[in-house]
Amino acid sequence: MNKSNLRLFNRSVRKIKNILNPVIDISDEYTSLLCGINAGWLERGNLYSLNYAIEHLPSGSPIIEIGSFCGLSTNLIGYYKEKHGVTNKLINCDKWEWNNSGPMGNSRISIADYLIYAQNTYMGNVQTFSGNDLPHTIKEFSDDFFRMWRAGEEVEDIFGRKTKLGGPISFAFVDGNHEYEFAKNDFLHTDEFLESGGFLLFDDSADGTEWEVSRVRDEVIATKRYEIIIKNPNYLFRKH
Ligand SMILES: C[S@@+](CC[C@H](N)C(=O)[O-])C[C@H]1O[C@@H](n2cnc3c(N)ncnc32)[C@H](O)[C@@H]1O
Known about the structure:
Blueprint: H1 3-20, H2 29-37, H3 45-55, E1 63-66, H4 72-83, E2 90-93, H5 111-129, E3 136-138, H6 142-150, E4 154-156, E5 162-164, E6 169-174, H7 180-193, E7 194-202, H8 213-223, E8 226-231, E9 235-239
Parallel strand pairs: 1-2, 1-6, 2-3, 6-7
Antiparallel strand pairs: 4-5, 7-9, 8-9
Helix pairs in contact: 3-4, 4-5, 7-8
Bound molecules: S-adenosylmethionine (SAM).
């Protein structure tokens, strides 16, 4: 089977699986309206997992998010925090820098322009929808973010506020670079700080996904230190 036939085959298998195991979608009026105006890549099943993790946080330690893009998941985390009266800080990172900064396809717009726009819309989106509980957003790649976390550094976030990094983490939503090496590092670094009973949600980790995150997902399972809480269809783990 050639690559494109294999892709078609995998897609069909996923569709059949979705019919047999439908994704639980807890979209409501707010989340539907938000998704209409706040750009982003959201698997609707993540709503259920985000809501679950935030409702069952083991402590008041920070929540972290890797890969914020235009702030859709950030605002959803904020929404579920408010819903459950959770006051844990949300600290997230994105550098809005990709390997490729050249033209977007055949257009006159470059990826570099696209990412400047993404950061600007991120700031507007979270100021509008999470303005009462702004996340602490650090403009760094996740490897550097975790290095600063380990060192307990005090850094300035993109809104000009001093933010102290470090200490235990209660929940990590990992949605940064999906290549194996990066996703693996995000897991190893999260694992270093995630407390017992803490949650880990990997975007694009569903069974049958073509993303390399699936290799990391299998390695998380192989540690036997994580319980699978939800597959909807992405994996939400809780650390023993
Ligand atoms: C799939 S998008 C995130 C989508 C977002 N969570 C949402 O709700 O729409 C991935 C994001 O990760 C960022 N990213 C890529 N590599 C990263 C890295 N090494 N560290 C942190 N963020 C990274 C990208 O700039 C991009 O904004």
